[in-house]
Amino acid sequence: MKEITEKEVQQRMENSEKLNLIDVREVDEVQAGHIPGITNIPLGLLEFRTHELDKNKPYIMVCRSGQATQYLESQGFDVTNMTGGMLSWEGKVE
User: Fold this and answer.
1) Which of 14, 16, 32, 78 has the fewest Cβ atoms surrounding its Cβ within 10 A?
2) pTM of the full predicted structure?
3) Domain residue extents for the chain
């Protein structure tokens, strides 16, 4: 499983890179604060919403356990897990 640190994600965002961030927390958790520009797909719904994702795009998963990353990787997606999930995020939140 590929991993990226929260600092690397923040740096790439500051460099205006277009990132495809998927936050797999529950809707109420995301509403309480999330990284700007994320797509929210709760972990429990991920297998039912994979059709919304493009296998030709790289994704960064905001998932503390890495479970979502492992699942999407097994489905043929190019995914990288952000280590620590939102607990490690120190950047801007909405």
Assistant:
1) 16
2) 0.95
3) 2-86
CATH number for region 2-86: 3.40.250.10
Query: Is residue 35 within 8 Å of 58, Cβ to Cβ?
Result: no
In angstroms, rounded to a whole number, what is the distance separating the alpha carbons of residues 30 and 23?
A: 8
86: left (phi over 0), alpha (psi -120 to 50) or beta: alpha
Single-letter amino acid, residue 35: I
How large is the average pLDDT for residues 56-79? 97
What's the sign of the alpha-carbon dihedral 30, 91, 94, 40?
negative
Given a contact cutoff of 8 angstroms between Cβ atoms, the answer to whether 59 and 19 are in contact is: no
Cα 54 to Cα 24, 32, 67: the distances in Å are 17, 28, 19
| Known catalytic membership, residue 63 | yes
- When the pLDDT of each residue in the chain is averaged and rounded to a whole number, the result is 96
Give percent of the chain above pLDDT 70.
100
Catalytic residue among 38, 60, 63, 86: 63
